[in-house]
Amino acid sequence: MTPSTDRNLPLFERAKAVIPGGVNSPVRAFKAVGGTPRFIERAQGAYMWDANGQRFIDYIGSWGPMILGHGHPAVLEAVQKAALEGFSFGAPTEREVELAEAIIDLVPSIEMVRLVSSGTEAGMSAIRLARGATGRNKIVKFEGCYHGHADALLVKAGSGLATFGNATSAGVPAEVVQHTVVLEYNNVQQLEEAFALHGADIACVMIEPIAGNMNFVRASVPFVKRCRELCTQHGALFVFDEVMNGFRVALGGAQSVYARDIPGFEPDITVMGKVIGGGMPLAAFGGKRAVMEHMAPLGSVYQAGTLSGNPVATACGLATLREIRQPGFFEALSASTRTLVDGLVAAAAAEGVPFSADCEGGMFGFFLLPTLPQNYATVMQSDGARFNRLFHGLLDRGVYIAPALYEAGFVSAAHTPQDIAETISIARDVFKSLAN
Ligand SMILES: *Cc1c(COP(=O)(O)O)cnc(C)c1O
User: Fold this and answer.
1) Which of 255, 263, 420, 254 lies closest to 342, judged by CA?
2) What is the CATH number of the domain that holds 268?
3) Are 40 and 127 part of one and the same domain?
4) Fewer CB atoms < 10 Å away: N or C end of the chain?
5) How far away, in angstroms, is 46 Cα from ligand 1 center?
């Protein structure tokens, strides 16, 4: 691309004049990897095209929602029909009930669900619910897990268990995060100590079960089991943030994956988003009836939303869920994701690049590390400079992965075996250049 025909750079310059950093969500700015963000013009199936007309095989999928690929005909039809009927009413609709019923049908731990518009809103509301239902203030979260940008959740670990976390954003008063305890992911001993110290005050433990906001790190089975036991024992609620994992790693979400190893396993509250909106602003939180009945107007925990359960968004979500429930859908999606991951591992090995990777359902992650990390500190030992070369090498050759080494990747049902094979062969080229 000669400078005179490149449209991304001038668009980015225009954007920066009117939008902070030129983007409406920070990671889109390419700050970690450098270079100019691609302005996307359109997308279809597994591909996106930027303002220069360059085609990319898309492994971001809008950060998870586009599990069917872009522009799936059945979803498009449902959205077009809904749009003709009206954009928003501020009154109840049948599709909200249908979507709630579909979620409850797919996730056994959920008996009631409230629809909202973003994962942040769902996570924030889940915490208010946990506090309201238990009458306690403290919440436990884990380093490297992202639960949206509510004040109480923008916290990193303090210097010890007895100290409180520190806000990771300006504008968050220390008083607001003083009730948030931040622990190391997968560290059973720290978890036990935290409960020994604060057990009677803990409203909830919130976790990303397969953490996609530190690339791809699984909570170990013993860790999830111990979280569950300690919550039950101390009267705290266990909150699974499945905004990324839900309807993505398996039809029943990450909780169905853990239930294979922990018989009868269920969280108390589940936070959902991304796939349930199919690319529209839609998220949800749900749980057992006894917990959910604390929500207004039944109970005293207040939460509301002008666009909650939006009729066009629910049509998009319902059509998406209908497709992913088809027999064999997850088997096929898991198999393509596995083929990609195995291919990348083999390509890196052939070029002598230290590399490890993992996947579940249609979600994957890889590290420029010889073995898979178990917590945030280890994830951050990845070679950032090398990742940036890998990222730009792939991008220049038409493969679009997340522009940061601590973000997961997503395969859609629209990715064909040819797309996967092309990706692996491009990756091998890039690995070769990394090795030199
Ligand atoms: C994306 C994400 C959120 C936030 O959702 P938004 O819709 O971006 O507000 C919360 N939790 C997890 C695990 C996520 O991946």
Assistant:
1) 420
2) 3.40.640.10
3) no
4) C
5) 22
Residue 426, domain CATH: 3.90.1150.10
Residue 4: its pLDDT value, please?
A: 74
> Where do the H-state alpha helices sit in 119-252?
119-134, 174-177, 188-198, 221-234
Q: What is the pLDDT of residues 124-174, one digit of tens each?
A: 999 999 999 999 999 999 999 999 999 999 998 766 665 667 888 999 999
Range of the domain at 377: 8-71+327-435
What's the pLDDT tens digit per position in 346-356? 999 999 999 99
Active site residues: 146, 241, 274
Which of 146, 243, 363 most suits a substitution to test ligand 1, by most atoms within 8 Å of the C-beta?
243
Quick check: pTM over 0.85? yes
d(CA 349, ligand 1 centre) in Å: 33
With respect to residue 2, please indicate whether it lies within any of the assigned structural domains: no
Contacts of 170-179 with CB under 8 Å at 24 or more apart are: 176/151, 176/152, 177/151, 177/152, 179/137, 179/138, 179/139, 179/152
Q: Are residues 372 and 241 in the same domain?
A: no
Q: How many domains does the chain have?
A: 2
Q: b/e map of 164-197 (b: 16 or more CB within 10 Å)?
A: bbbbeeeebeeeebebbbbbbbbbeebbeebbee
What would the two tokens of residue 250 be?
Answer: 């398996």
Percent of the chain's residues with pLDDT above 90: 94
Minimum-distance ligand 1 atom for the alpha carbon of 120: 9
Judge if the beta carbon of residue 285 lies within 6 A of ligand 1. no
Same domain? For 335 and 390 the reply is yes
Residue type, 366: F
